[in-house]
Amino acid sequence: MSTARVRTAFERRVRVIPHVSIPMSDGCRLSARIWLPDDAEERPVPAVMEYVPYRKDDNLALRDAPIHGYFAGHGYASVRVDTRGSGDSEGILYDEYLPLEQADGVEVIRWLASQPWCTGRVGIIGKSWGGFNGLQIAALAPPELGAVISVCSTDDRYADDVHYMGGCLLASNQLQWASVMLGYNARPPDPSVVGDAWRQMWLDRMERTPPWVEAWVSHQRRDEFWKQGSVCEDFGAIRCPVYMVGGWTDAYRNAIFRFLEGYPGPSKGLIGPWAHNYPESGVPGPAIGFLQEAVRWWDCHLKGLDNGIMDEPKLRLYMADAVRPDPGRQFWPGRWLAMDQWPASSVETLVLPLGRSGLLGEGDDPRSGSEEELRIRGADAPAVDAGTWGGHGGPVDNPADQRPEDGQSLCFETEALPEPLEICGFPVAHLEVASDRPLALVVARLCDVWPDGTSHLITRGLLNLTHAGSDESPEPLTPGERYLVEVKLNSIAYSMPAGHRLRLAISPTYWPWAWPSPERVTLSLFVPGRSRLDVPVWAGGPGAHEPPAHFSEPEEGPAPAHEVSGDEDASRTLRRDSATGRLDIELRGEHHMKLFDAGLEYNSSSCNIHSIVEGDPLSAFNSAEHEISISRADWSTRVHTYSTMSATADEFLLTNLVEGYEGDRRVFAKTWRRSIPRDLV
Question: What is the pLDDT of residue 391?
Answer without folding.
Answer: 87
